[in-house]
Structure formats: structure tokens, C-alpha cells
Amino acid sequence: MTDLKAKLHSLCLNYVQQKIGNAGEAIAEAQQAANNETKSSAGDKYETGRAMAQQETDRNMAQLNEANKLKVALNHINTAPNTTGIADVGSLVTTDNGNFYIAISAGILQADGDSYIAVSVASPIGALLKGKRKGNEFALNGKKYFLTGVY
Q1: 141 burial class (0-12, 13-18, 19+ CB within 10 angstroms)?
Q2: SS3 98
Q3: What is the pLDDT of residue 133?
Q4: Does any domain span residue 42?
Q5: Residues of the chain with pLDDT under 50
Q6: Own/partner long-range contacts of 115-123 (Cβ < 8 Å, ≥24 apart)
């Protein structure tokens, strides 16, 4: 399970790196657009274009900051085997209705031929998983989940 957790952790890190790269590219494009905006006799058009480019830069900077926060959170996650049997950040949890990696919300990850859903403890399902043990169950949106393993 340690290898699988390391793979899932790596997939989450790749997800974050892609978000960081996309935000960086978008920031560069918005700055280039602002720099290319030329002042004409219609000064309002120039100012509006620059303001829109600045808003785009600000929005992408916020996305970049969030992605960097996710990266920091991932760097604090321990991928060692879970010896307590209690689901927490870094745990791999198997249920009768899906497999979950408690780390960051990164969606569905494919590893070793199976699907795993990367969830944050701040998400509704992550909050319900935290503190559970093998054999526990919970319900979310009318769907019952029975924990078959915590690793």
C-alpha cells in the first residue's frame, strides 16, 4: 500500500504542478496583452483594456496562490503506512462505493488499474471519512458507504 499511496501522492503533486503552470502561463499572457495595449485618441478604450488585463492577472494570481497552498499542504502529507487504522490526512480508504485518498481535492486519479478519488478533509466526504475505521459506515447524499480498509 505504501507504493500505491506514493503514486497517488505523486499524481496529486502533478495535478498541482499543472495548475501552477497554467496559472503562470495565463498571468504572462494577461501581462503581454496589457503591454500590447496601445494608447489611442480614445483614451477610455485604452484604460478599459488595461483594467481588464489587470483583472485577469489578479484572478490568475489568486489561482496561483491557491495552487501553491495545495502544494504546501501536499508536502506536509505523510505517505507512510497508516498504523492507527484511523482515517486521516494521507490515508487511503477503501469502501464498498469507491476508493479515496485523503489529501487534496484533485478529482479522480488512476493508479494500478483502479480509480481513486482524491479528497480534502475540508470536503463533505473527506470530513465524513476522517476519524473512521475499517468496518465503520456513513451516508452522504442518500448513499451509504462501508469502509473495507484504511491504509
Answers
A1: exposed
A2: strand
A3: 97
A4: yes
A5: 41
A6: 116/8, 116/92, 118/8, 118/11, 118/12, 118/15, 121/88, 121/89
E strand or H helix at 109, and its extent?
strand 107-111
Q: What radius of gyration do the chain's Cα atoms show?
A: 21
- Domain C-terminal end among 75, 101, 122: 75
Residue with cell 480508504: 93
Domain that holds residue 18: 2-75
Does residue 43 form part of some domain?
Answer: yes
Kindly report the pTM of this predicted structure: 0.84
> For residues 128 and 105, what is the distance between their CA atoms, to the nearest angstrom?
14
Element (H, E) at 29: helix 2-36
Give the number of domains in the chain.
2
